Amino acid sequence: MRIDVVTIFPGYLAPLREALLGRAVGTGLLDIAVHDLRDWTHDVHQAVDDAPYGGGPGMVMRPHVWGEALDDVLAADPRPARLVVPTPAGRPFTQAAAHAYAAQERLVFACGRYEGIDQRVVDHYAASMPVDEISIGDYVLVGGEVAVLVVVEAVARLLPGVLGNPRSAAEDSFSDGLLEGPAYTRPEVWRGHAVPEVLRSGNHGAIARWRRDRALERTAERRPDLIAALPPDALDEADRAL
Ligand code: SAM
């Protein structure tokens, strides 16, 4: 997969070269390019923003700088691309969206700053290619860079070969619509807290049932919206008996 990120703070994206993502880049599973938006400015101040039409606080990112940058970045690689624009006003980014993105050949991210990017940039590209405005949560960050780190990490770990054990992703929270239950490792007793007996029993059926029950309990308590969104056939009789 090819990922391009356009930003006025390329240094913010340095973590894309670390740990699991860095290894995916090193082994060629992921190809990441970070571009400085200011390279497409033509004035001495390299201005990327201007005052908002209609008045109000803050500044808006200029469309012509973004247009030149995205035209060049998109043209630099022939693979079909999806443009992703992080914004708190976007659709929520979910694990399902991460799976959909992991199936793409190319993602191009446009990082907003200030009050965001002139809306005509999204409208212009949406006429000729898939464009998503996405939010990583109901809070406001200062820029799109951290949102891009979140999305790229969620997507990259789903690419075949990136995780050491592909079962990890298959059994994570959200894979079956539920939050994952608690996990334990050695020692058996730590500061008076014992690991649940069933996990040490070696009875795989009982362990699977226990894990499912804890996932159901945790999800009902913390995210009742996820329980409500389960398809009708998602719960079996044993689940309902809980
Ligand atoms: N005026 C915008 C609004 O109220 O919707 C907020 C702009 S925010 C200060 C600046 C940039 O941070 C946005 O253009 C976006 O790139 C990024 N950003 C902030 N919060 C975000 C979130 N929850 N999800 C995704 N991106 C976000």
UniProtKB/TrEMBL annotation:
<feature type="binding site">
    <location>
        <begin position="136"/>
        <end position="141"/>
    </location>
    <ligand>
        <name>S-adenosyl-L-methionine</name>
    </ligand>
</feature>
<feature type="binding site">
    <location>
        <position position="112"/>
    </location>
    <ligand>
        <name>S-adenosyl-L-methionine</name>
    </ligand>
</feature>
<dbReference type="GO" id="GO:0052906">
    <property type="term" value="F:tRNA (guanine(37)-N1)-methyltransferase activity"/>
</dbReference>
<keyword id="KW-0808">Transferase</keyword>
<dbReference type="InterPro" id="IPR029028">
    <property type="entry name" value="Alpha/beta_knot_MTases"/>
</dbReference>
<keyword id="KW-0819">tRNA processing</keyword>
<keyword id="KW-0489">Methyltransferase</keyword>
<dbReference type="InterPro" id="IPR023148">
    <property type="entry name" value="tRNA_m1G_MeTrfase_C_sf"/>
</dbReference>
<protein>
    <recommendedName>
        <fullName>tRNA (guanine-N(1)-)-methyltransferase</fullName>
        <ecNumber>2.1.1.228</ecNumber>
    </recommendedName>
</protein>
<dbReference type="InterPro" id="IPR029026">
    <property type="entry name" value="tRNA_m1G_MTases_N"/>
</dbReference>
<dbReference type="GO" id="GO:0005829">
    <property type="term" value="C:cytosol"/>
</dbReference>
<dbReference type="GO" id="GO:0002939">
    <property type="term" value="P:tRNA N1-guanine methylation"/>
</dbReference>
<dbReference type="InterPro" id="IPR016009">
    <property type="entry name" value="tRNA_MeTrfase_TRMD/TRM10"/>
</dbReference>
<feature type="domain" description="tRNA methyltransferase TRMD/TRM10-type">
    <location>
        <begin position="1"/>
        <end position="228"/>
    </location>
</feature>
<comment type="function">
    <text>Specifically methylates guanosine-37 in various tRNAs.</text>
</comment>
<keyword id="KW-0963">Cytoplasm</keyword>
<comment type="similarity">
    <text>Belongs to the RNA methyltransferase TrmD family.</text>
</comment>
<comment type="subunit">
    <text>Homodimer.</text>
</comment>
<keyword id="KW-0949">S-adenosyl-L-methionine</keyword>
<dbReference type="InterPro" id="IPR002649">
    <property type="entry name" value="tRNA_m1G_MeTrfase_TrmD"/>
</dbReference>
<dbReference type="Pfam" id="PF01746">
    <property type="entry name" value="tRNA_m1G_MT"/>
</dbReference>
